[in-house]
Write a structure and sequence with these properties.
Elements: E1 7-11, H1 16-28, E2 34-37, H2 46-52, H3 57-61, E3 64-66, H4 69-72, E4 78-82, E5 93-94, H5 96-108, E6 113-117, H6 126-129, E7 134-136, H7 149-164, H8 182-198, H9 208-221, H10 226-243
Parallel strand pairs: 1-2, 1-6, 2-3, 4-6, 4-7, 5-7
Length: 245
């Protein structure tokens, strides 16, 4: 197992389709180290390959297959177990976000980490969970807490990726243009103030300063592009042209 990412271990998975879906979810977020413990329908499984669809098949090609869970986690220093049920065991319980943050810290110190996912019908057995160092519990609807195997894998894989990803939470797509500069916004404001004053918009006189201030604030509050500024100048010119101004 690579020191740079955890092993995702599917314990006694029942359906090949779900194994394939898990592989897809893993590769979506840059994970490739899958281990299988006693898959019900044997291995390899053509249904898993079909569901993995293309590149994710490489995750299945390199998946390790083990008869027992102790064999699958033999080289791991820290093991997380995903569960949707309360357990009569004293262990830390983490959200996927916190768990993957902790996993990254452990792996940065050279520790090998694994995440366990249980079979589709009933999840991990207490004997499986007892071998884990911590639990991962997804804050789902308590009236319907059951997650599909592929969904559970996707949630953890997403959080793993997010913890190390530098993608900004929000960007402005500029569609081939640039944001307007401060001077361009200033000139736009001047143009509108001038024309609005000619039209008698600033009335009564004592409110003129506050009205102009509101307009300036409006322009600066909008993320205007250079194309936007040009369009707004053109709109005002056309209105005045039609009025003969």
């Amino acid at each position: 197992m690579s020191d740079r990412q955890p092993a995702f271990i599917l314990v006694r998975p029942q359906m090949g389709e779900n194994i394939g879906a898990a592989a897809r979810a893993m590769l979506n977020f840059g994970l490739s180290h899958m281990r299988l413990v006693d898959p019900r329908d044997g291995w390899p499984n053509p249904r898993a390959v079909a569901m993995a669809s293309g590149a994710a098949g490489t995750v299945l090609d390199h998946a390790g297959v083990f008869h027992t869970l102790p064999e699958a986690i033999h080289d791991c220093a820290y093991v997380f177990a995903t569960t949707a049920r309360n357990r009569d065991l004293t262990k830390p319980v983490m959200t996927p976000e916190r768990a993957m943050e902790h996993a990254r810290a452990l792996m940065a110190s050279g520790q090998k980490v694994a995440v366990l996912f249980g079979p589709e019908r009933a999840g991990l057995e207490n004997e499986d969970v007892a071998r884990a160092n911590a639990l991962i519990s997804v804050p789902v609807n308590p009236d319907f807490p059951s997650l599909n195997l592929g969904q559970a894998v996707l949630l953890c894989a997403y959080e793993w990726r997010r913890q190390g990803d530098e993608t900004p939470p929000e960007v402005l797509a500029l569609a081939g243009t640039e944001l307007a500069t401060a001077i361009e916004i200033e000139k736009l404001g001047d143009h509108y103030e001038e024309r609005l004053a000619e039209a008698g918009y600033f009335f009564p006189e004592e409110k003129t300063p506050s009205m102009k201030l509101s307009l300036r604030n409006l322009w600066s509050r909008m993320p205007l592009t250079r194309a936007d500024v040009q369009m707004l100048h053109g709109v005002l010119r056309q209105i005045l042209r039609r009025r003969g101004g």
